[in-house]
Amino acid sequence: MNQLLKRTKGDQVIWGVVLVLSFISLLAVYSSTGSLAYRMDKNSNYYLLKQILVLGLGLLIIYWVHKVNYTKFARIAILLYIISLPLLLYTLFFGATLNEGSRWIRLPVINVTFQTSDLAKLALFMFLARVLSVKQSVIKDWRKGFIPVLVPVICTCALIAPANLSTALMLGFTCCILFFIGRVQVKHIMLLAFMGIIGLALLFTASKMFHFGRASTWEQRINDFAGKSDGKTKKKEDVYQVQQAKIAIANGGITGRGPGKSLQRNFLPHPYSDFIYSIIIEEYGLIGGAVLMFLYLLFLWRSILIFRRCPYAFGAFLAVGLSITLVFQAMLNMAVNVHLVPVTGLTLPLVSMGGSSIWFTSIAIGVILSVSRYVDENEGKTKATKEEPNTKTKLATA
């Protein structure tokens, strides 16, 4: 154990946040899967053991990835992005369908499904970090600087949007933040946002006219959020989820009902994934919900410190881009649970029950810690080099 701790490098605060989030995940998943285990005729500990295995493998992935020099990710960024595009296209037409959206593909032989948008997010930000670092000298030029970073964002978001609009919008927004940090001209970023709005309008119109995609679902969710649903649609699952989440939050109060004492876990659909935050608030109160939010913000703050300390643009953009998308997804999930935004279907990173989504998140965290490890080692060498002449002077004087 001591040898493992000695070999674990990178930002120790981020390591701590990951471990605490994993522990919270185990408590919340165990508490919220009782009724699911009953319906699926499983042992009450089945989903807890499954989550332990998933998180355990996730921690190993973080450890393995953080040992890799982050500069090697620049070499595979292009290949990974090229692979992600046909996978997204295949998923759009032939992927497994859930709630009218085709988001997953099933791997043959091992019979495991994964959400291709998770791979696309990782590939896109690695690719953008590479391109932004290379194009810094011409980044304010429209043709030489902005077009090379604009096209990948449009292609990825366009392939994700028909089946998973919330993820596409989240990606577009976080890419705009990354572009701003990467010194892209504000007028170019505003143009990207305008193009996104136009694209969204065209997608919605085409979906309504030709009866494909999820336009009716998007429209219904907005109406539900605005309180414009009629008597028939009030019975829909999205509205029911929001109502039960509000009840759970009200039951929790300030300090919560206590671990494992949630009442709404038996009524709330998907209390172990999309709406796990409301179960956490019910059991641990607003204090528990605030602590969870603080952990994600702490993770972002430490990643920003890595960004500021990294001497090379690729590592800096890599750390801040991956951390922003992870934390922004967490904040969107929390906002849905407290009914600040319409229902999206985004999970709570590292906390919601999952499989491949947790592993892709683990890869992203491992990359961030790899950048941190390099920064720490580089600063250590610099400090040792500065102190070496002073040591020699003292020995000569003695």
Structure notes:
- This protein is mainly alpha-helical and 398 residues long.
- The protein has a domain at 73-213.
- Helix content is 72%, strand content 4%.
- The chain has 14 helices and three strands.
- The chain has helices at 2-7, 12-32, 34-39, 46-66, 72-94, 116-134, 142-160, 165-181, 186-210, 215-226, 237-252, 276-309, 313-337, 356-397, and strands at 96-98, 101-107, 112-115.
- The chain has a three-stranded antiparallel β-sheet with strand order 1-2-3.
- Helix 12 runs antiparallel to helix 13 (313-337).
- The longest helix is centred in the C-terminal third of the chain and has 42 residues, at 356-397.
- It is globular, with a radius of gyration of 23 Å.
- It starts with a helix and ends with a helix.
- The model is unreliable at 391-398 (pLDDT under 50).
Structure, briefly:
The protein has 398 residues and is mainly alpha-helical.
Which characteristics define this entry?
72% helix, 4% strand, disordered C terminus, mainly alpha, 14 helices
